[in-house]
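Entry 14. Structure prediction run on the chain below.
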Amino acid sequence: MSGLAGLNQQCFCLSLDEGALSRALETELGEQGLYQLTRERCPYLFSAQPVFVADDHIRRMNAVIGAVETVVKSSQWRDRVLDSAPAIARHHPGGARGVFMGYDFHIGPDSVGLIEINTNAGGALLNAVLARAQRACCPEVADLVPNAATALQLEQSIVAMFRREWELSGHDRPLRSIAIVDENPMEQYLYPEFVLFRQLFQRCGIDAVIVTPEQLRFGNGALWAGSRPIDLVYNRLTDFLLEQNGVAAIREAYLANAVVLTPHPQTHALYADKRNLALLTDPLELDAMQVPDSLQQILLQGIPHTEIVDPAHADRLWAERKRLFFKPASGYGSKAAWRGDKITKRVWSEVLAGEYVAQALVAPGERFALGETTPLVFKYDLRNYVYDGAVQWVAARLYQGQTTNFRTPGGGFAPVYQGQSDCTESASTTCQWSTE
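Output returned:
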């Protein structure tokens, strides 16, 4: 493989500047002790190597994202999806779009494949930190390296996004307070990012707290964290439909339109339920929703064919399992997801009994790194952070195993170095086997 993508196999340079990473976490963006906490709790959160992606792949991903966004915003899609969704998903969210949509892709030499869409996709602010800690390994790639200026633009767009959610919900006064909410936030793997969000909001004049849902109460027409009224909840919960008892205060405030909740249940129903991928790859369904042929072509070429697992088709699906990936319809974080060639009879019975989709297997990209004797091979996917249809940032996630995991030595979030496919031919020789 030649050109920019070929550097993923040929360039072994280390782009991560640990000193700059420490400064970003400790002083520029975070707080004292955050670098040590991150390295102790999440040692494989940041990869030391970049992933090279050609402009053409970026354009193709943008086309798929644009097609999905166009379809999802149509009245036909809303009627089709929300008609069978839980009642809370049909509640009007007051104008909020939903922050941090995550469009995750696998890419090949001449293709892109949207493998899933997530609400409350984590890692955007961590990638701003990572961008501040990059160094060019050679002059040939210097123009591709993200820097503090691009990181600052992302941070500013994040704050603007939350303020926009507040404005879209019909409020004239400035956004004054945000609660960053998750179960046991201090125990979450990405807790360092919660701290970064709190610090970012506070630097911009927005009071911010990190709380559990149980620490909130609804009363007097408002949501409260102690004596502090909360304007907006940045929702990091995986209880997407607010079904658990512990989130009762958020649920009541949301249904009473007393707080802006983002992302919210309707966003999850419209975008992230994996059964939606079956609709987006079914020509008959697309025809019924009057999706134009031009958009259908983009969707069918850019999203691996997906179908809802029906026990009536168990024999066929089992026979075809080696070319399929099975995912729970409401799953997240690759939990209970299985490559068909790794599935056992016991797991297969669980798949048939649960609510699963079967997606055509699309191989992830590969990134090579130096091993002791031979190169190590990492898989990677590309996460597009999207708000209201616009891509804010593209990041890679390196891993080994079936799915992304942030548990692989040498893996984690990796910066994307984007450029023309033929612009760095000379870098192949410059970077080869270099570790400086």
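Residues 432-436 have pLDDT under 50 and may be disordered.
Filed with the rest of this week's runs.
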